Amino acid sequence: MASHALLVKPAEITSIWIPGGLILAYLVCRPVQSWLLLLSGFTAGGVLAFALRSGVGMVVLPAVGYLWISACIAAGAAAIKLGPRQRVMFPTIGHLARFFLIVVAGVSVACSSGFVGVVAMMRDDISLPRLWMLGTTAFAVGFMLVTPLMVELQRAKFPPWRDVRKQVVGFFLFSVGLWMISALAWHAAPSNLSNIPLALFVPIPLLMLAAFQFGTFGPSVGLVVAFLPAMIVAIRLDRVDTFELGHVNSYIMQLWTLAAGVLVHALAIQARQRTDILHRLSVTSEENRSLAARLMQSQEEQSIRISRELHDGVNQKLTFFSIALSSIRQRSPEDLHAPVDEVTAGIRELIDEVRNISHSLHPSVLEHAGIGGAIDDLVRVIEGRWGGEIALRIEIDPALDELEGERALCMYRVAQESIRNAIEHSGASAMKIVLSAADGRWRLRVSDNGRGFVLKEVAMHSGLGLVSMKERVQLVRGKLHIRSRPGRGTSVTMELSA
Questions:
Q1: Closest CA to 367 of 409, 398, 326
Q2: S-S: 422 plus which of 126, 179, 345, 448, CB 3.0-4.6 Å?
Q3: Residue 351: CB partners within 8 Å, gap ≥ 6?
Q4: Is residue 261 domain-shared with residue 133, that is, in the same domain?
């Protein structure tokens, strides 16, 4: 009954035919087996409304007309049938283009042609070309506005209220504001018909915003909200005293509605695809971080194993050889003491070297003395090796002893790599290592007076272990800042939340 009430008006036709969009939405979302029942009810309701309005005798021709419209809509629904896993009406621009060409254009033309044909058999006092044009655009606007909205509502999976409360409130306020702006713009339309194009343009920027902010569902609702005042005004314009001019402006309103619908849905598709890409990038990035964490964990475990083998195996054997040589020296003639002492000294140097390598692979002191003790031990090793070549200053805040586990190991590795870079690459003669705790953060800063470098050039070639340091720091949710200028030295700062 609603279908006929909205289809036939005193001014011959309304600016939008809602039932067509409704039945199309149900068909594309429902199994094909239920289509016959839905279309039968749709046809029966339309014929009954027509009979009650125009007389009981007017049944056959309306039935033919509604059967034709039902067949056209069913054909369009079959052409754009949604898959069971398709959660949105327009996943891609291609789906939107297919919907527009098949349904908005093709089905609308077919439905209007059948409707005009039935009217031509019933009345001869109506301009059929004008009626066909109004009918086509009315069907098209109904399909463009109503069908996507109903499909989105039927296919939507709404999360718990507490998770979307702010978004829902924001969307409600946005819709109210959009309706008020559109209503105010259309308030002056009946008194000055030249304002209609301007009134149609006013809500477009807000609809574009809805496409980016609220996804596909936003434009579907926003289009209906924005153009509801336009529909009401168009009905008022369809009066006998403004018949010619009213329909001209109805054409303008309908065409603008269709253009706006295509525009905002296309923008919504682009916004959703961009969101999907960002989500996939986020997931991939998280997977990469997880993989990097496992890789670094594997490297640390391997370093621990090698460190223990060096300490417990190689070093013990070297120590045994040193003791054995000392015993041999005692039983050897004096002329062999000097060569034996030379070999013994070489073995002891090798023992120290192996111990340093073992400590660099796995700083066991970190577990016993904390990050401060580990850094202090690292500095002593460096001074023992390069004491005459580079001046080292170290400042350690005792509060950093609270730092432990992976974060302490990460800070140690950053300090180790930064010091190695300064010694091997910068040509620095002085270096300062500062461990501090302030403002709820733990900080490590390693600075030198070396030759410096252009950070972008080094980063492009992944030099100086910068990539490894950044990955380590990111895995413990920290921040790494590197500052360097040619001839001005380098400063590496690592920050962790306390």
A1: 409
A2: 448
A3: 315, 318, 319, 322
A4: yes
pLDDT digits (tens, 9 = 90+) for 465-478: 677 788 888 888 88
Output the CA angle 58-69-81, nearest 5 degrees.
155
CA 253/CA 262 separation, integer angstroms: 14
In a domain, 391, yes or no: yes
Q: What is the DSSP letter of 461?
A: T
Last residue of a domain, one of 265, 288, 311: 288
**Beta carbons within 8 Å of 456's beta carbon, 6+ residues apart:** none
Q: Does position 277 have pLDDT exceeding 50, yes or no? A: yes
Q: End-to-end CA distance of the chain, in Å?
A: 69
Report the alpha-carbon distance of residue 96 to residue 80 in Å, rounded.
10
- Write the secondary structure of 177-223 as one string of H (helix), E (strand) and C (coil): HHHHHHHHHHHCCCCCHHHHHHHHHCCHHHHHHHHHHHCCHHHHHHH
Tally of structural domains, the chain: 2
- What is the mean predicted confidence (pLDDT) over 335-355? 79
- Rounded average pLDDT over 394-401: 83
Q: Which residue has the tokens 């030759």?
A: 451
β-strand pairing of 430-438 with 391-396? parallel
CA 294 to chain centre: 26
Cα(464)–Cα(250) distance, integer angstroms? 69
Q: What share of the chain is helix, strand, coil (3-state, %, to 5)?
A: 75, 5, 15
- Close Cβ partners of 383 (under 8 Å, ≥ 6 residues apart): 392
Instruction: Please indicate, yes or no, whether residues 372 and 253 belong to a single structural domain of this protein.
Output: no
**Backbone φ and ψ of 193, nearest 5°:** -65, -20
Same-domain status, 282 and 372: no
Which residues lie across from 484 on neighbouring strands? 490
Same domain for 262 and 175, yes or no, is yes
Tokens of 54: 């125009």
Q: Are residues 52 and 141 in the same domain?
A: yes
Domain ends where: 272, 288, 304? 288
Residues 169 and 49 grouped into a single domain: yes
Sign of the dihedral through C-alpha 84, 89, 95, 97:
positive
Query: Is residue 482 in a domain?
Result: yes
CATH of the domain at 415: 3.30.565.10
Task: Report pLDDT for 326.
Answer: 79
